[in-house]
Amino acid sequence: MCFLYMADSEDAGKWRDCLFALAPELEFRQWPDVGNPADVQYLLAWEPLIDLADRFCNLRIIYSAGAGVDQFDLGRLPKQVSLVRLVDSAMADIMAEYVMFAVLALHRDILVYQQDQLAGRWQPRPIVRASKRRIGVMGIGNLGSAALVRLQPFGFQLSGWNRSLKEVPGGCCYVGQDELEAFLGECDILVNMLPLTPETNGILNATTLGFLPLGAGLVNVGRGAHVVERDLLAALASGQVSGAVLDVLAQEPPEQASPLWDHPRVLLTPHIASDVQVEGGAAVIVENLRREREGVSLLNVVDRFKGY
Ligand code: NDP
Fold first, then answer.
1. 77 pLDDT exceeds 90?
2. What digits encode the pLDDT tens for the residues 219-251?
3. Domain limits at 198?
4. Choosing a second label site near 163 at 20 to 30 A (CA), which of 2, 8, 180, 246?
């Protein structure tokens, strides 16, 4: 059994050690030392090579080195090859930490106080109780669910929006396009945790940002292309959106001339909200080896039709 590592070479040693500890029978090879390509059954890659099927004729599973799979052209993947995401509870915990930080920063007006500090202003603002603040999460998947569970103890009013009905702790789940406007109307702080698909590309635009209550906050940890940046800038300028915490951008990093760099109501972080964790990722790979052996369905397989 042969596993080919085609991701960040700095992490290769960690993946090798972790996989060896859990599944010593799995031979680890690192790109470009492929050996006989016909040996390769499993592949970990950020982006697949275009001629994947021809090159690795016995390939069974591609593991995405990224947390999403929007960098893959799903239509070009060979049908017999499964694409699998390496999500685990550690990745969800790390993301939940970031979401807590971002929501609390907006809830407690930290972006405003940061500007006040820079301007030498000492100006307290009224405190809003968490029980009066409505937080909405778009995308109640592995990561969105974990974030909602962590938000609940603060006492916020929670809601979620999802393709299918999901549980929202202490709150309501809005479903599908028909309920998007109603959902957004209830979000004092909106947290986007959707995957990027043709359906969700540009989902936060002038129209949908306009459905938010006046002065709402935005946290984007999904993908940059979910937000139409010029529409967000217009919404910030008009006060429709009062502040945004953005971990992902359409272009990363943004060009030097981007107004996002020094926007007083925007906090940028360089796509660090969460990431694939080696230990958890290796555990998924090894669990899938067992499932393959026993003919059980694999963990975390991407649905090519849905695109996530
Ligand atoms: P999941 O696949 O577990 O969850 C996605 C959720 O979004 C599902 O609940 C799904 O609904 C819902 N959804 C998808 N499309 C739509 C739609 N058109 N309308 C409504 N709901 C929809 O993904 P994860 O939670 O693990 O990750 C989400 C995304 O977070 C990733 O795709 C990635 O882009 C991003 N991410 C960002 C990171 C960062 O560092 N900033 C790190 C990790 C991930 P249903 O349940 O009905 O299928």
1. no
2. 999 999 999 999 999 999 999 999 999 999 999
3. 90-268
4. 246
Judge whether 271 counts as a catalytic residue.
yes
Q: Do 188 and 128 lie in a common domain? A: yes
Mean pLDDT of 23-52: 92
Residues 33 and 54 in one domain: yes
Among candidate residues 223, 226, 263, 265, the one labeled active-site is 223
Q: How many domains, in total, are found in the chain?
A: 2
Atom of ligand 1 nearest to the CA of 92: 26
- Tell me which H or E stretch contains 114: helix 110-118
For residues 120 and 211, membership in a common domain is answered with yes
Query: Is 223 annotated as catalytic?
Result: yes
SS3 per residue for 49-80 = CCCHHHHCCCCCEEEECCCCCCCCCHHHCCCC
The answer as to whether 299 is a domain residue is: no
138 Cα to the center of ligand 1, angstroms: 8
pTM of this structure:
0.96
CA of residue 304 to ligand 1 center, whole Å: 14
